[in-house]
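so my prof wants the structure for this chain in the tokens format not the other one, which i didnt know existed until like an hour ago. anyway here's the sequence
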Amino acid sequence: MIRPTKGKTPRRPAPKKPPSNQKDPVGVYCRVRPLGVEDEECCIEVISNTTIQLHAPDGLKANRNGEFKETQYSFKKVFGISTSQMELFEDVAKPLVDDLIHSKNGLLFTYGVTGSGKTFTMTGSPGQGGLLPRSLDMIFNSIGPYQAKRFVFKTDDKNGMEVQTQVDALLERQRRENQSSVPKTPSSKQRLDPEFADMINPEEACKAEGVDEDSSYSVFVSYIEIYNNYIYDLLEEAPFEPIRPKPPQSKILREDQNHNMYVAGCTEVEVKSTEEAFEVFWRGQKKRRIANTQLNRESSRSHSVFIIKLAQAPLDADGDNILQDKSQVNVSQLCLVDLAGSERTSRTRAEGSRLREAGNINQSLMTLRTCIEVLRENQMCGTNKMVPYRDSKVTHLFKNYFDGEGKVRMVVCVNPKADDYEETMLVMRFAEMTQEVEVARPVDRPICGFAAGRRQKNQAFKDELSRRLEERGGPVDGAPSVMNELLQSFPPLPACELLDPHDDVTLPRIIQVLEQRHRIRDRMTEEYHKAAKMMKSMLQELDSNLVTKENFIHDQRGKLGEKDKIIQNQKAEMERLEKKAKMLEYKIDILQKTTNIYEEDKRSLQQELESREQKFLRELSEKKRMEARMQGMVSDTKQKWEKECERRVNAKQLEMQNKLWVKDEKLKQLKAIVTESKSERPEAPQRPSREKDRLPAKRSASPSPVPTPL
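here's what i got, hopefully its the right format
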């Protein structure tokens, strides 16, 4: 949870950097170290100069039932066991040093399991210098003739650089030398420590091309270590207290005005030669925390960061002094990081402080992997997740490099022995994922635009002056002059002691020598006057040439004044046109915005029209379906009612037929009764009994059965 700060000024927004559409992937290289024992089982095979293959050991295959298979991993380049330190430097670090000299930043770090050769790759050994000493040697071989005097460049303790005059630099040098508490910077002429003497073969020395000769350079180095997620300065000179020695104080990370991270209060030493830089490096290397573990006799217990800063400033118009303008000072830096190796506590059997160190090392490396994973996901999936740089000091310090402040290179060191197979496989997966992260290419920083070749012009003027002196018989560098010959022929005085009053040899000899010395002195005086006269005539000629040049310069200045007026008029016209162009651009923007609004309205109306048209079509189709459905229902109902009507008509007809038939039967019966009564009328009719009377009636009342309708 972030607590709100009270009474602090709000954070300024980051300055807008020029857009860089070009991106480069993180350069990942792999270096395979040789096996410690020849008969030891190997799990790595170099397939090509860009591919390696991992073989699972036999024990793992038997235990895991074939879970571990042969896997291939690709890198930008793979360096086998026969690769020399020079070949590695040529491919990996030399482009970064060349960018450093051309005002671009760079980050190079070694990564791998404990005992995989990271420190040897970075530092090297006597006669086999690693990436760090070779980088320093290339820097000083390139800028050696163009270095500024000591203390001309001065750090401002805010990750910036200031420029001092020659007088201020001299006073600063005297003040530093008078302070007894501040150790003197070692000179390149002093005898070096034998453990790092002859680090680089002179035949392997290299030099950058295209160095700006009209600029002055100065190199500053600093050396820090990140131990248990705390930052310590390895070059800090703490006062010696034998009774109660104070532990080293940790440093904090801060952000400069350009939103770049730096270590506040870190010692930055100005060095003037490769030997001097080696001396400073090894002074800090002796303070670095190392320990003896089960896997490595000298295991690094911290991440070390060696920072090389190169300050560059252009010369003034005369080409003699550095331009006193802080805004023209370009500071580029190269960070060489030797990461501590990841390790498993089950293998190292670490306890106590060693266990805590291993946990912090693994945690910081895990944070680095997490940051790489989030960066890769944001770039490949288009997400905008927050990268957890602040979870570790290592990632927080170098967040600017992954945001596009310079090139990033990683050397993955692997040990081919079978015991490191599982750790090596995790390292390979991380390296494969890191290659998919792209970093914005840094933009070139412009240098002050004076005319080039100021140093060459000054040197040409000196050569011309020497040539004229030689033509007039004056002294020439490397050739003995007449004055020097006379001084060499100047006879020494003989012994002047008189031991005998009758000595007639000593005084005449002294007189002879004095006369000879007097003649030589007269000749020297004559030569002196001759040289003075020649110098005077030469100075007069130079004065006349200077007057001529001054007149020429005056004329040129008049022409320049006219040109300046023309330029001012053109600038005014350009400003007017620029204002007009800005006004037109403003109007164009307004019209563009209006057009965008209209287009947006048009698109919305078009979408609404399309949606309504689709809705209308859907309703029309629905209506047609309903109409067809209703027609079907009407036809079905009509057929149903027709059948029902037909059935009812048939039933009614049948019923009427039955009724007619019943009536017919009744009429027949009635007719039969009538006919019977007519035939029996002549006789005396007898009144039938009630039962007989009822019998016909009963018959007539019971009609014949009606047939069932079909």
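also thought this was worth mentioning. The chain has two domains: 23-237+247-440, 475-497+510-613.
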